[in-house]
Design brief:
Elements lengths: L40 E2 L10 H15 L9 H15 L6 E4 L2 H11 L5 E5 L4 H8 L5 E5 L4 H4 L4 E7 L11 H10 L3 E5 L16 E5 L11 E4 L44 H17 L1 H21 L12 E4 L6 H6 L2 E2 L1 E3 L2 E5 L6 H12 L2
Parallel strand pairs: 1-10, 3-4, 3-5, 5-6, 6-7
Antiparallel strand pairs: 2-8, 7-8, 9-12, 11-12
Helix pairs in contact: 1-7, 2-7, 3-4, 8-10
Length: 376
């Protein structure tokens, strides 16, 4: 299993790892051309990843079966468990520690509602709202916000939970999770890490943290409506406030009246799944497993480094985010329109151009973006 995500050089792979493939930065190609045929130069994975062809086929077949009322077409729980297992393998924990749902915010809310009154939650400034807002809206909690680079130093004896994204959505900065985790353990605090912007390219050990949350529609290349929560072996002591029949130990025997026995695994925190979305989620996870996160990380980073070098030649200075495939460029929110006019999909976040590179991108995509930005 790949090692856990860590600090400024997070995910830099061990040179002895079999999961590393050297990338020639002069000729970086799409890692899975047969699975993707985008109609644009797509550089917006940090917002939404592209679906592999296999995902589109699986969803189409499942939707057709349901439209025709074929036997069993309304019951894809075996697919949900296959997705659960694939995600578990990706993040290095047993499947029994993974809950499946549709929203990272819902799972953050579950954790927020499970904390005792007056508990202090430590967050990073400008972190993604779906992670931090559930703690702000529960008035009984004390939320303290500090700069990302000071997060580890700001953990104190009264801190109950440290909640942080492994990779910042706004600008791609990578949290020093080694230091944050060590500080949390030293002070008896629990950790919640949002890996939505890292899982799928950055080797991750979810077992290094108390909780992780992740949406499936970004770097995992699944549809919207898929999300994951990982919990400790003891299930984390969360109050299953939204538990329905799917959270029961025997769901089909628990469809009426109170659920008398919750699942003995993280499935007790499952949401009733968006079955068509989960049918499409498996393809992206299996593709990542086939290619290996080390290889994907090397590929994505090489593209981002190529883009950063080109920006430097154009006189632009991106937000420092070494090792990240997300590049955020101050002063380029208006020129983002040039990219759109040239058929290039990117994003604008926090008033800055945000570009993100993934396995379906190649060097020609980088060069096309740079050419568009160089135009007056």
């Amino acid at each position: 299993m790949d090692g856990p995500i860590t600090g400024a050089d997070s995910g830099r792979m061990d040179e002895t790892s079999n999961d590393v493939t050297a990338i020639d930065e002069t000729a970086i190609e799409n890692l899975a051309p047969a699975q993707f045929a985008p109609g644009t130069v797509y550089l917006n994975t940090a917002a939404t990843g592209l679906l592999p062809a296999a995902a589109v086929t699986a969803m189409s077949e499942a939707a057709t079966a349901h439209a025709l009322g074929r036997p069993g077409s309304e019951d894809h729980f075996a697919v949900v468990d296959a997705v659960r297992s694939a995600f578990a393998r990706l993040v290095g924990v047993p499947a029994r520690r993974v809950a499946t749902g549709s929203s990272a915010a819902v799972y953050c809310g579950l954790i927020a509602q499970s904390l005792p009154e007056g508990a202090e939650v430590l967050c990073a400034e400008g972190d993604f709202s779906s992670l931090v807002n559930p703690f702000h809206v529960r008035a009984a909690l004390e939320v303290r916000t500090v700069p990302l680079e000071k997060l580890a130093a700001e953990v104190r004896p009264g801190t109950a939970l440290v909640a942080v994204s492994a990779v910042q959505s706004a600008d791609g900065r990578i949290a020093d999770l080694d230091a944050i985790g060590a500080a949390a353990r030293a002070h008896g605090a629990r950790t919640l890490v949002d890996i939505s912007q890292s899982a799928g390219w950055l080797p991750t050990d979810a077992g290094a943290f108390d909780f992780t949350v992740c949406v499936g529609y970004k770097w995992l290349m699944g549809p919207r409506g898929t999300a994951f929560l990982t919990v400790p072996e003891d299930l984390g002591g969360l109050t299953p406030v939204f538990a329905g029949w799917v959270a029961a130990e025997k769901p089909w025997d628990s469809t009426y009246g109170p659920v008398t026995e919750l699942a003995s695994s993280a499935r007790r925190y499952d949401e009733n799944p968006a079955l068509l979305s989960y049918t499409g989620a498996l393809a992206g996870l299996l593709l990542i497993e086939e290619l290996g996160t080390g290889r994907i990380a090397a590929h994505d980073r090489a593209l981002a480094d190529r883009f950063r070098a080109g920006l430097d030649r154009l006189g632009h200075r991106p937000v420092p985010a070494d090792g990240s495939p997300i590049v955020s460029v101050p002063g380029l929110d208006a020129p983002a329109e040039r990219l759109s006019a040239a058929g290039i999909r990117a994003g604008v976040r926090a008033g800055r151009l945000r570009v993100a590179f993934h396995l379906y991108n190649g060097a020609s995509d980088v060069d096309a973006a740079l050419e568009a930005l160089a135009r007056p």
